[in-house]
Amino acid sequence: MNIYARLSVLLLSLAGPTSAVLNCRPEGPILPKPRLSNSSGIKAAGANLTKTLNNAIKGSIKAGWPVENVSFSLAVVSTDQKNAGVPIWEYHHRAEKNVRGTKKVTRDSQYLIGSVSKVISDYILLKSGVDIDRPVTDFLPKLKSPKSKIDWSGITLRMLGSQLSGAPTNNGFSEYYFLKDLFVQSGFPKLKDSDYPSCGVIGLNKGCSANETLDGMITQYPVTAPMERAAYSNIAFVVFVLALQEVTGKNYTELVADVVSKPLGLQNTLPSPGDDAKAVIPPGNSTWGSDYGYNAPGGGLVSSVADLSKFTYKLLTRSIGLTPTQTRQWLKPEAYTGAYSAVGLPWEIFRPLNLTPAHPHPVTVYGKGGGAQLYSSQLNVVDEYGMGLIMLSAGNPGASIFLSDALLATFVPAADQVAREQAKKEYARTFKSPSSKTQTKSLEASFKLDSDSLVVSEIRDNGEDVFAGIKKMWGLTMGQYTAAFGSTVRLFPTDLAQTAQMNGKNVTGEVWRLWPEFGEAMESDLPGSRLSYDNCLQWSLGDWVHYGKEPLDRIIFYKDADGHVIGLEMPFLRTGVMKPM
């Protein structure tokens, strides 16, 4: 079947009324990423959450956790903050029952961050210069053992870093030796100590060395076949770091320092144990002060809000030491884990539909949660808005989900509203071609912001409806193998930019693409009518129609050094730069 026939079959069924949720759109920002640091909307949202948290701590409202036992730090990071290590909003609380550690919790206070360590470990993997699609056995030949229950030769470093290796979850740590009597009382047969792994079992023996770790990987069972499905593994991170150690000659502590902390200016990010004087230490028996040894890559780092703010800021601004393309690739899923969730490298990706209730659409949250005994952490990157959200807690782990969700529910809709307000001011305008002795045309293009995105209002040339002509040509060309187009044409930013000169000054040209929507769906009494409506295939229609080497869906907004829109160009109409009216 040729491409035209395939498009016809796939797309004819997709026309339908505009959904209440903007499900079918190009992936990425709907509008340009907002400037949040000085936004009154963000400041108001922060003030409201501060008040709510204060009331929860005082007991005026139900917190959902024992506030006297839980210390925490919250922060919001934006691409336009003045200092990478100073979030645009932060909140810190020291529980009244804390007796050890720092007397005042600040952005520089240290927490155990659990599996958020995996983000740092995967960053080290990406920065290593090693081909991460090579089998791990190229670096650790011991894993080629014919006795191994796992075929490590078919497992790459990328699979290990993205939870797709099928490797076991832990090595020794999954043995609950301290509950052995309760196991027997519950009907399990009694075991001898020699029945347990020879290392890594809490309460029985010491931690594992590198060789003992690899021995364990030979004797343990796989959880699933490689690349079959996501299966959470801490030990997978230990294994690929051991591989990097073979290549670089550096252990994990040295890799964290040389690849992450020193280049990025992180003062408090290191393998546990951290500094008691700076630490947020909860009451009770926690794992603060533990030496995680070879297990540190999967969950044994200490960090702070300031350090995670710097890391997130550099990730969001594409200045983290990877190319922009590498960073965009890093923020992509590797496999599905649920209806609205996926896993990346090592992101736990969530796409809720209800984060922006006033203007519903799927919002992609690139998250990573972590936990250690009495410690919880959550790093959420919402790239659509150039925003990061940080939650670190010490105490009852039940607090973490309430705190993390409160950050999302407060600041994502606020950022969405700021993006809309800024886009309406800068882009939802009328642009007119300049008049001159040689230019007889008087071309005008108008855009407005509807409840979902920017849309084309009209394009006229001396009163003639050019917009209707554009839609007509789309219908005559693509219409032969698609459903009929509707009246709405949306436009979305592409994250492509070009530098140009205007009146002797450098300006930035933002490339946008037009996105025609389909009209009403065809009716049918056959089973499954409209079933394919949620399968968004409009992304396959971009760049299909050209006029003299210029795509009919490509337009350029020009911005000055202050970020204000000062011009529009529609190259397919040979408009030149049109000025806002």
From TrEMBL:
<dbReference type="Pfam" id="PF26335">
    <property type="entry name" value="ARB_00930_C"/>
</dbReference>
<feature type="signal peptide">
    <location>
        <begin position="1"/>
        <end position="20"/>
    </location>
</feature>
<feature type="domain" description="Beta-lactamase-like ARB-00930-like C-terminal">
    <location>
        <begin position="419"/>
        <end position="579"/>
    </location>
</feature>
<dbReference type="InterPro" id="IPR051478">
    <property type="entry name" value="Beta-lactamase-like_AB/R"/>
</dbReference>
<dbReference type="InterPro" id="IPR058664">
    <property type="entry name" value="ARB_00930-like_C"/>
</dbReference>
<dbReference type="InterPro" id="IPR012338">
    <property type="entry name" value="Beta-lactam/transpept-like"/>
</dbReference>
<dbReference type="Pfam" id="PF00144">
    <property type="entry name" value="Beta-lactamase"/>
</dbReference>
<feature type="domain" description="Beta-lactamase-related">
    <location>
        <begin position="97"/>
        <end position="406"/>
    </location>
</feature>
<keyword id="KW-0732">Signal</keyword>
<dbReference type="InterPro" id="IPR001466">
    <property type="entry name" value="Beta-lactam-related"/>
</dbReference>
<comment type="similarity">
    <text>Belongs to the beta-lactamase family.</text>
</comment>
<protein>
    <submittedName>
        <fullName>Beta-lactamase family protein</fullName>
    </submittedName>
</protein>
